[in-house]
Design brief:
Bound molecules: D-xylitol-5-phosphate, zinc ion
Radius of gyration: 16 Å
CATH architecture: Alpha-Beta Barrel
Number of domains: 1
Order of helices and strands: EHEHEHEHEEHEHEHH
Distance between the termini: 6 Å
CATH topology: TIM Barrel
Structural class: alpha/beta
């Protein structure tokens, strides 16, 4: 299992230290949650913070934009050093154009679905995607409870990927714990995002290592 610690749950007074912890861990990516207070009922941080993390991060940046019309910011996200740009299906009117523009900008395009959005909505775009991110909580906050119906949804996404010949990876975000990570892995996920489970732990590096074994 690839693990993507979410710095939303890091200690912002020690963001450099926490980014260095991720560098020194078994994490495969560093997950960066941007919230605009419109698409989701919370505001997190923006480009200056991503740039600061990017300067010292050695893991690829997985930038999850919980914002309306994310296509407005493609070049800024790229200039922050993002490897993966995650946009919400629900936030893009012309998703095909946005995905193409992310690729043209030199990043890997990923599309995120909220818990109530069916995977079938991606059938005609999934061949173009590097990754699909399934939200396992309603986005906006760290530390929420995992929505159990995500397990069945991972299976339906796996099937859609097989049917369409896509090579998209499956990432799951929200409420991931050491208890539910094996279930998420067994259902077919490639990557888990973990915020609270990692950063509230006494030994975050060890928790990341354990999640990779899920
Ligand atoms: C939720 C964010 C998540 C969040 C996950 O809106 O997209 O990435 O940081 O945090 P936990 O793992 O605490 O649910
Ligand atoms: Zn996220």
């Amino acid at each position: 299992m690839i693990v993507a610690p979410s710095i939303l749950s890091a200690d912002f007074n020690n963001l450099g230290r926490d980014t260095q912890m991720v560098n020194d861990s078994a994490a495969g990516l560093i997950h960066i949650d941007v919230m605009d207070g419109v698409f989701v009922p919370n505001i997190s941080f923006g480009f200056p913070v991503i740039k600061a993390v990017s300067k010292i991060a050695t893991k690829p940046l997985d930038v999850h934009l919980m914002i309306v019309d994310p296509q407005r910011y493609i070049s800024q996200v790229r200039d922050c050093g993002a490897e993966i740009m995650n946009v919400h299906q629900e936030a893009c009117t012309h998703l095909h154009r946005t995905v193409a523009a992310i690729r043209d900008a030199g990043m890997k395009p990923a599309v995120t679905l909220n818990p109530a959005t069916p995977v079938e909505t991606l059938r005609d775009i999934i061949a173009d995607l590097h990754m699909v991110l399934l939200m396992s909580v309603d986005p906006g906050f760290g530390g929420q409870k995992f929505i159990e119906s995500t397990i069945g949804k991972i299976g339906r996404l796996r099937q859609l990927i097989a049917e369409t010949g896509s090579s998209a990876l499956i990432e799951i975000d929200g409420g991931i714990t050491l208890d539910n990570a094996p279930k998420v892995a067994a259902a077919g996920a490639d990557i888990v995002v973990a915020g609270n489970t990692v950063f509230s732990a006494a030994n975050p590096t060890e928790v990341i290592r354990q999640l990779t074994l899920a």
